[in-house]
Design a protein that fits this description.
The chain is mostly helical and 219 residues long. It is built from six helices and no strands. Helix 5 (144-174) runs antiparallel to helix 6 (179-211).
């Protein structure tokens, strides 16, 4: 195996691990929101426990990339690709953290009946996970057109987040005995909004990979 072939093989392995990491992060986010909606404390606990797998996989990707850089001394596009892998892995790990945070809020809410405003979390989840699936597809295909669409979806998530916070604030005046749950739902909405932001970050990294310059899609 030539030096180039070995580099390509190791790079492909790191990228496959990144795709696996994205699947774990998206699954964690979905499971955390499902646990909230179903008042499933056991599922919420599983999200927290499974986060160790996400953290370990991110560390594995980082170690692989650092080893490739140390052994191969890549330059130009190859080095840019390796740096992007580390940054995307970090974004995905943070999404796993948000899933854990949602699970913790779910445990705090417990079996208490959810306020009707909680229903706004579902469309946020659907958009955020759609963004993540699309941006990973865009990364695999190096498709900046797909990546650009992520920013438009992010605007929709931001709008839903604003609507959720407004309705929760109104609910606070009407249901002062539910202030604890209102606060927890506001945190969960924020974690969903931040997850969508990280999908946009990944899209920005793809632009950097393909075009060699930074674009800020959230602006």
């Amino acid at each position: 195996m030539s030096v180039r072939e070995k580099f390509d093989f190791e790079l492909n392995e790191a990228q496959q691990h990144l795709i696996e990491l994205s699947g774990l992060a998206i699954a964690a986010l979905n499971k955390a929101v499902d646990a909230l909606m179903d008042a499933d404390i056991d599922a919420a606990l599983e999200v927290i426990e499974d986060d160790a797998d996400i953290n370990a996989l991110e560390e594995d990707i980082n170690d692989r990339v650092i080893l490739i850089i140390a052994k191969q001394s890549p330059v130009a596009t190859d080095l840019r690709r390796l740096v992007v892998l580390i940054k995307i892995a970090s974004d995905l790990e943070r999404i796993g953290d948000y899933a854990v945070n949602i699970a913790k809020e779910t445990i705090r809410i417990g079996k208490e009946e959810l306020l009707e405003q909680a229903a706004l979390i579902n469309p946020m989840r659907q958009l955020a996970t759609a963004m993540l699936n699309q941006v990973i597809e865009a990364f695999i295909e190096e498709d900046v057109v797909k990546a650009k669409e992520i920013a438009e979806l992010d605007d929709q998530v931001d709008d839903l987040y604003g609507e959720a916070i407004r309705k929760l604030m109104v609910s606070g005046t009407q249901n002062p005995d539910k202030l604890s749950q209102i606060t927890q739902l506001a945190f969960i909405a924020r974690y969903m909004e931040r997850s969508a932001d990280h999908a946009t970050n990944i899209a920005e990294q793809l632009f950097y990979l393909v075009r060699g310059k930074h674009y800020y899609l959230n602006n």
